[in-house]
Amino acid sequence: MKLTRLLAPRSVAVVGASTRPGSYGNLAVANLVAAGFSGPVFGVHPSAAEVHGVPCVPRIRDLPVAPDAVVIATPAATVPALVAEAGEHGCGGAVVFAAGFAETAAVPGTGAVPAGVRLQEELVAAAARYDMPVCGPNGNGIVAVAARAPLWGDAYAPRRAGPVALISQSGNVAVNALLSTRALRPHTVVSCGNQAVVDAAAYLSALAETDGVRSVALYLEDEGDGARLATALAACADHGVRVAVLKAGTSPLGASAAAAHTGALAGDTRILRALIEEAGGAWAHNPHELLELAKTLAHAGHPRPSTPRPAPPGQEHDTLHRVEHAPASPVENAPRHEPPARARGVLIVTCSGGDAAVAADEAARHGIPLATLSDTTEAALIPVLPATATPGNPLDYTAVIFGDTRRVADLITVAASDESVGPVLVYYDRPARMPEDAAAEWDAALNGILSATVPGPLLVASTLPDLMPEAIAELLVDHGIVPVSGLTEGILCAGALLAHSAGGDRLRAIAGAASSPPAGGHPSAPSHGGTPMAEHEAKPLLREYGVSVPDGVVARTAEEAVVAAGRLGGDVALKLSGRGIRHKSDIGGVVLGLGDPEGVRTAATRLLGLPDAREAVLLVERMVAPGVELMVAVRRDGVVPVLAVALGGVWVEVLDDVVLVPLPVTPGRVAAAVRRLRGAALLTGGRGRAAADLDAFGELAARAAVLALTENLDLLELNPVIVSPGGATAVDAVLERA
């Protein structure tokens, strides 16, 4: 299903065009006229000759052309037939505003299918018959800003087009984005509505291939099909389109996963975030962050124009005082380096010690690295800074030289040239209105920022959102600089520029893993219809896939346990194993470090007397050498399958120290993920400890992931996995088939 004609129409018809002010049909026509849509526009009305000067015909089949887009602004009951008529006429797609479809709730206790659900099924069938995309129903429509084509059922004022697209499952988020004064410069805005025919992933795939789109803001309430979303993100990676995502609400965990540690640690929102981060995307917590991040991803990293493009007529910055570039001046001792192979960090520049301290705190809180300036760079800054300032990062140049254009430009240029610096974030607050004499100093400070030479992305953020007026924001964008509203938002946006996509191939592999699971499974692995396998059944399967587990023997009596312990030799662990037993330690079903026959006999007798032992056996295993306890788990009922690695053994939920990696994984990818744990120093040799064998752990986890995918497991949980300098061993296991 192609969305090209719908997203960038060259001709439009409005069905339900109305002479009644305020109606959807009236607004839709008025918006197209006000936007200056250059193609033919028609109205469809049973009796009106024209609406807002647009000629009308009685029926869709009477239209002289097959329009690229049809706006249907009529009651819900009429929509399926109109969609069918539009498809028969050869229209390229439709936008449906009306509510009253599948979003309507059933009457409690009746068991009847709501009429709205049946209407939506009829709409979908009609669209499928003609392979015609439909936006909605129950949405605000599509605004193709770049094409001057608002297919929009709400108030709309023409906007300055740019590189940012927005796909929103909330109509109000889309409306507010179009009304915002943050120099967003949208390219296309989509209000998805019920997504009856076209979902967010389909819009994302189409916009990724659209000329002029450099970032997409994605507001999700339902992430939908994971394979389709991963495929769309792959298209974004292929075309260099960055993505910012806001997920509203928390989906309920799957029942089987919720009963295990995996459900508590690998929640649905965390899984989606792991996928977005694989794609190099930015994660937002509210609509304001979403739009600021999308704007940053679109504008940063692109060449700054030598001559700013003029604003369209009527959109000049007439409230802004004249700002000119400072005369060029050589900066003595400014270090120049080729981009290094190592990672870079953010440089923060401000005239306020308080802002510098808060910005540093916010960077630490959000895990965003700051650049460490070299001794050479700090020495070069000393003659540029006032005597009261100290070179460093954050770089506080103090209010002493706030209005000194040359020195502000030079200090940013010097600091930004350091090889450790990636994005440069300059804080600058601009009151919307001020006396003429005060404005001169603010103009001079801004002029210094505009005149600086910065090799990488340059962001200018206000400390408070209302101190970034629209005129300033627009001016900054014209100069290739990203304006950001808010101190913390500035940190988040600069940090987002440090992320990198894993690439289209990796994302397509994730999409493949998220597709329909394989039928059947390993012939030696019993299927329990959703009941977890007993540990003594799971361990042989783990061995077959090369997952290291302790040597063990099954015993059904205390005497058999004694014999088994003797055969294994050394200290042993004794565990109760049954299909309904998940967390053995919670029921006292584990005894460790048994070294003599009498101890084994006593422990076995007690375990076999537990209430949970009626259909259980004893698993006698050789003790594993001490090490760091990790949990390795695979969860497949989220948006995509993921591998979860967590620190803590029985304390995993308390510590909540977890990283998620979408499947498939390699040993190296797992080992890299482990280093992102907060407690990674326990594994990498912190505080004098010997470093654990992360290569062996990565191999174990990767093999476990292959097992889960191949055997069609909904859940695999190895907890704990003991990791030491000598290797990695899965001590306990929960496996559950789909």
TrEMBL record:
Pfam families: ATP-grasp_5, CoA_binding_2, Succ_CoA_lig. Residues 299-318, 512-535 are annotated as: Disordered. One of its GO terms (molecular function) is ligase activity. It comes from the Bacteria. SMART domains: CoA_binding. The keyword Ligase applies. Keywords: Ligase. Residues 512-530 have a biased composition (Low complexity). Residues 6-101 form the CoA-binding domain. This is Acetate--CoA ligase family protein.
